[in-house]
Predict the structure of Tyrosine--tRNA ligase.
Amino acid sequence: MAATSFFTRLARPSPYVCKQCLRNRSIARETRRAISNGWLQKTYEAELAWKDQALKIKAGEKQSMMTILEERGYIKDIAGGRDALDSLMIEKRIGAYVGIDPTAPSLHVGHLLPLMALYWMYVSGFHAVTLLGGATAKVGDPTGRTTSRDSVHSAAQKANMVSMHMQIKKLWVNVEALALKHGYKKEWAWKRALLNNNAWLNTLTLPELMRDLGSGVRLGAMLSRDTVKTRLQSGDGMSFAEFCYPLLQAWDWWMMYHRNGIQLQIGGSDQYGNICAGIDAVNHIRKTHHDPAVRQEKDEPLMQPYGITTPLLTTPSGEKFGKSAGNAVWLDPEMLSSFKLYQFFLRTSDEIVERYLKLFTFVPLHHIDLVMNKHALDPSKRIAQHLLAKELVELAHGAAAAGRAESENKELFSKGTTQIERSAIRQEIAKSMSEVKNSPRSDISPSLNPKAPAVTAQNAPSKNVILPRSLINEGAFPRILYAAGLVSSRSEGHRLVSNQGAYVAAEPAQSREMGDQLSWTPIKNFHAQSPPTFVIDGSLLVLRVGKWNIRMCQIVDDEEFEAQGLSCPGWDEFKAQKAAREEIEKEDGRNPFA
Ligand SMILES: Nc1ncnc2c1ncn2[C@@H]1O[C@H](COP(=O)(O)OP(=O)(O)OP(=O)(O)O)[C@@H](O)[C@H]1O
Ligand SMILES: N[C@@H](Cc1ccc(O)cc1)C(=O)O
């Protein structure tokens, strides 16, 4: 039998595989085995480390996550029970998330409260997800609002989303650098992701939502929410879309609970209602899911979802800092410079500076105590405020910007400056801060100054530029990259495109479950990729060179561009060539023999 099969095999024509390929195959097999073994080993070690840490916490040798969050002032309310969540976080490396709707081009200081709680969890070993509400932003959270939100043009919505996406990514990089600075060593088990709810809400069907979630949602509970009651009583009413907003937020949580093990949602205290609705929804779906492989028959305490709300950051008069209130302190350096952000925190009163140091920094508590003692000796030196301002700018804009803001500030307020000059400078800063506009498109500046000299990638003043429509419609990508200030010449643009070093944004979506990429298409040199096919809603083109260098190109008609007195690199040359071309065409039209 064996002999037969041996000869049968010999007789069967087999595809020829060369020795090199055979070697590669076996290397690939070995590598795969090595990776998966390595991964399993690390996962096992991480589990052991967590168990070991749990023992230390129970023995009182180490603080629990809950205690750290409480001590630093991050907890306003806990949904699901404080002690139960405390024990869960001791036993299990759960995942947590903070969701933000990109309804403005930038995050503001208020957002940092829930985000800092999440960052602390991350540097303590938990899995952390920042969720951008690309889909929920289109509806708009009605919580706490007495009127509906103004509708925002969809190009502006997309621009906001790309801006915030890049900003959140940068924040994560700065968080890691700050954690390192304050003595946290990055471990293999630290996991973070930036997701966008476009990925699942754009493909969610109504029957699916109704079957899985709608069946468990009680109308009474939805109607009794404060925002709904206020709107109905005040006569303004509420759209069905706004009424359904909490269902979309709840679906987000379910998706991330199921796919990524997210058991905790963190938000500002105004999010308490949405978070509770999310807990009910996740509990309903996990217990009643139609797929037995997903359904959780037993009520496992280690699988419960929980919520944390952080206190609201308010003005001294008690008003919430935020977009709707029109008093947001923006984190985007193009909307508020590092110097002004530094200034904002430098003006923190002595009464709240300690609280802010705990909330907005990774400075250990014992170090804050030392600083406060030193500060008390001579409050006029504002030692605590300087530390707060520097750490905050470092978090928002990075270490180099923080260093510059600090030295600029020291220079301005150095001994040579008189009291009168100082108060004039302060007034100037306060005035310009109050002028930071609140409109979602306020960041689009005529950043390439009227008749400005050539802008190079190195001195590009802004990630937001305005470009004339004909340049997009008739120009090729190298010219547009030059006009947008991403390269210093058209030929550099050509070289970059040939080397596939430039990208254009396609519909932002996520291909991988925990991936954090917007989708970008490499710009190539062939005709099918003509720039107008990438223009979003007729008025926005998003370009990227390298990892961080992006341009949001707002496209306006040529007449408007000229009327505003704007210019961009290569514009005069383009206009001259266009005029010459048109002239020749006119000539050709006149000459029937041409
Ligand atoms: N001033 C603040 N203090 C604490 N948390 C805040 C503050 N502002 C926003 N947040 C929190 O940040 C998260 C995202 O908020 P959101 O995007 O709705 O910002 P917002 O400025 O409150 O927007 P809007 O005013 O348009 O509702 C939520 O959890 C929200 O509670
Ligand atoms: N509703 C939140 C943002 C958010 C969006 C989606 C979520 O899944 C969670 C939170 C807010 O407006 O503040």
About this structure: The first helix runs from residue 2 to 11. The first strand starts at residue 77 and ends at 79. The pocket of adenosine-5'-triphosphate (ligand 1) is lined by residues 100-101, 103, 110-111, 113-114, 141, 267-268, 270-271, 310, 312-313, 320-324 (CB under 6 Å). The chain has a mean pLDDT of 84.
